[in-house]
């Protein structure tokens, strides 16, 4: 397990809390109101992106220029770099797929 400072722990909890909040509100909207499939897919993709960003809290506690130079060297707190890469790419793919689904549903409207 990776040892985190209090600042990094609060960053991780805040980002993962936002991801869980988005997932829960999108499921609530899907079940109780009129929420399209494209919006749900986009919210799930964004939650994956937030989860992936929360895996490297060191990115948020360094100056921007230094953080982006070392982005590929920052070690995630739970998984390997390869797993973080797949989580982020799955989030981007789902985000793009949600936009495509919304566009196709918009085209099919009478």
Model description:
The protein has 110 residues and is mainly alpha-helical. The chain has helices spanning 6-32, 37-54, 58-61, 64-69, 81-107. The longest helix has 27 residues, at 6-32. It has one domain. The chain contains 5 helices and no strands. 75% of the residues lie in helices and 0% in strands. The N and C termini lie far apart (54 Å). Helix 1 (6-32) packs antiparallel against helix 2 (37-54) and helix 2 (37-54) packs antiparallel against helix 5 (81-107). The protein is elongated.
C-alpha-based Rg, rounded: 16 Å
Residue windows where pLDDT falls under 50 for at least 5 positions = none
In DSSP terms (H or I, runs of 4 or more residues), the helix count works out at 5
Strand content: under 5%
Total strand count, please? 0
Round the mean pLDDT to the nearest integer and report it: 81
Report the principal-axis shape.
elongated
- Distance between termini? 54 Å
Order of helices and strands: HHHHH
Question: Helix proportion of residues, in percent?
Answer: over 70%
Helix vs. strand class: mainly alpha
Query: What does the main sheet amount to?
Result: none
Number of domains: 1
Search tags:
110 residues, 0% strand, mainly alpha, 5 helices
Write the layout of secondary structure elements.
Layout (H helix, E strand, L loop, with lengths): L5 H27 L4 H18 L3 H4 L2 H6 L11 H27 L3
Helix pairs in contact: 1-2, 2-5
In short:
The chain contains five helices and no strands. The protein has 110 residues and is an all-alpha fold.
């Amino acid at each position: 397990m990776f040892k985190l400072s209090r600042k990094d722990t609060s960053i991780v909890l805040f980002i993962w809390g936002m991801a869980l909040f988005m997932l829960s509100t999108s499921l609530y909207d899907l079940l109780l109101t009129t929420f399209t499939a494209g919006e749900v897919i986009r919210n799930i993709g964004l939650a994956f992106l937030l989860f992936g960003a929360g895996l490297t809290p060191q990115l948020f506690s360094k100056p921007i220029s230094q953080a982006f130079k070392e982005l590929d060297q920052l070690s995630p707190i739970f998984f390997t770099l390869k797993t973080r890469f797949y989580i982020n790419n799955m989030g981007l793919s789902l985000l793009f797929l949600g936009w495509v689904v919304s566009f196709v549903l918009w085209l099919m409207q009478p």
